What does this fold into?
Amino acid sequence: MAERHLLIGNWKMNLGPTQAREFASTLAHRIPALTRTDVWVCPPTISLSAVCDELRRSSISVGAQNVHWAKSGAYTGETSPDFLKDIGITFSLLGHSERRTYFGETSETVAMRTESALAEGITAVVCIGETEQERMAGATQKVLQEQLEPVFKRIEATTALRLVLAYEPVWAIGTGKVASLEDIAATHQFIRGLWTNRGYQCQPTILYGGSVNPQNFREILGIKEVDGALVGGASIKLDQWLDLIAIAEATGI
Ligand code: 13P
It folds into this structure.
């Protein structure tokens, strides 16, 4: 289990540069001193520079929502890991279910992006999760394994240290439905098992995501297999986001 909680806010396609700068500035002023929680935020690509500027002197890390596998070239609409590093980006989400569902991202391209991010010193937060249909068919574990296998194939034990996994059941994202505490614990245990079977010596950081809010977060973070959360909607509502940070700070590791 990780030594600190990790709370990541995925702003998705919300908060353009002006709004993002304002939000980040207020957040930087209102965030308490953190003793046991790392707080990271992922603005849209076009807002990254503004948010990096605002948060440069804060404890909050800024990350991207995706990163390409090549350093440069004919890849219209994509972002190179080098460009991200140039503005101070330290981590990126990879394989978010919205990328997989709407933009044809496959587990293989997610693995290529992950390998490249890690090689360039960018921490990779790889998102995995089953759809409702897959869950109903009893295929959750198979799906998670298939999503992770190509990533594991490309990642050496030495770079696995900078790999974070986020379990986000697709049916729980933005729906207000949350997996049961038993299901979250069992699935995180299963993911941990896949990691251990792979032979990595370090312990993985595993986050839960999907309709996390200040009402349900305390219980979710209380599950010993859960190291933190990947949060969408509640991460761009400042009071809710600060409440989530306060809960993480108040919860024992
Ligand atoms: P919600 O917290 O809005 O359900 O989104 C979760 C998510 O997709 C974070 O990446």
User: Anything to note?
Assistant: The pocket of 1,3-dihydroxyacetonephosphate is lined by residues 10, 96, 168, 173-174, 209-212, 230-234 (CB under 6 Å). Strands lie at 5-10, 37-42, 61-64, 91-94, 123-128, 163-167, 205-209, 228-231. The mean pLDDT is 96.
